[in-house]
């Protein structure tokens, strides 16, 4: 049975979606069959990184949640966006389940909500129906019902934070909630570390504060900013230090 991994941050702007997309590409490059689901229904966007145009989205997560289609029909094969990264194995695939970017459908979610239990069923169905090795949940930042559900159902939770006092305080809240939900495996990735910061000291500070391992640290980098979510960073820059750091995180996730 495939594993479900929630990738979360307490605040927006941590680079969560870009990290998620690159991890999916790297995991596929390791021969895995990967699903990525955008549960940031209020402000979806990871489809842009995979090059999936809004007018080509046949069905979205919203359609499943409102009973318009089975959840697997909302899955789009975005493997071509990986280029040669997924060519090593015939099994390697990435399927993206986007949320709708239509203003009316976002408004409906904000106004009416949806059946949270249906999302739980959908996550499990995706793993089984698509024969996934891993399902990555790109969560909504902060703490809400969807986030808590994603954390509770996940086999592995990766918390992404920046070396910022607000992020430290918010991440502490998320860690406490995750522990109350009896999360199986909770690990940290510190992103956008600026020049001049003592990485060893920062790692020790985070691990002491949250009693969880830091499995990756990535620098604040101009190449990532210049890419501007135009494509998958690990595909565009396969030898970049950020990609090398994410490859280590992917290996730890598999381990």
From TrEMBL:
Q: What Pfam families would the database entry show?
A: CbiA
A GO molecular function annotation here is: ATP hydrolysis activity
Q: Where is the CobQ/CobB/MinD/ParA nucleotide binding domain?
A: 6-230
Cite the PANTHER family for this sequence.
ATPASE INVOLVED IN CHROMOSOME PARTITIONING, PARA_MIND FAMILY, SEPTUM SITE-DETERMINING PROTEIN MIND HOMOLOG, CHLOROPLASTIC-RELATED
Q: Which domain of life is it from?
A: Bacteria
Coiled-coil stretches: none
Species annotation: Aquisphaera giovannonii
The Gene Ontology biological process annotation of the record reads: negative regulation of cell division
GO cellular-component terms in the record?
Answer: cytoplasmic side of plasma membrane; cytosol
The name this protein goes by in its record? MinD/ParA/CobQ/CobA-like protein
């Amino acid at each position: 049975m495939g594993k479900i991994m929630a990738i979360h941050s307490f605040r927006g702007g941590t680079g969560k979606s870009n990290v998620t997309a690159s991890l999916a590409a790297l995991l596929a490059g390791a021969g895995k069959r990967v699903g990525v689901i955008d549960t940031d229904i209020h402000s979806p966007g990871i489809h842009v990184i995979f090059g999936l145009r809004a007018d080509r989205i046949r069905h979205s997560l919203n359609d499943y949640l409102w009973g318009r289609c089975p959840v697997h029909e909302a899955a789009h094969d975005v493997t071509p966006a990986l280029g040669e990264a997924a060519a090593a194995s015939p099994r390697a695939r990435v399927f993206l389940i986007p949320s709708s970017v239509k203003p009316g459908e976002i408004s409906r979610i904000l106004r009416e909500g949806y059946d949270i239990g249906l999302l739980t069923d959908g996550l499990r169905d995706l793993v089984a129906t698509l024969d996934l090795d891993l399902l990555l949940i790109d969560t909504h930042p902060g703490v809400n019902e969807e986030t808590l559900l994603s954390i509770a159902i996940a086999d592995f939770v990766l918390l992404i934070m920046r070396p910022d006092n607000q992020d430290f305080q918010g991440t502490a809240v998320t860690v406490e909630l995750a522990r109350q939900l009896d999360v199986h495996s909770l690990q940290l990735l510190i992103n956008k570390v600026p020049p001049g910061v003592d990485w060893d000291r920062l790692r020790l500070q985070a691990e002491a504060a949250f009693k969880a391992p830091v499995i990756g640290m990535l620098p604040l980098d101009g190449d990532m900013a210049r890419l501007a979510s135009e494509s998958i960073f690990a595909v565009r820059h396969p030898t970049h230090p950020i990609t090398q750091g994410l490859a280590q995180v992917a290996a730890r996730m598999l381990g």
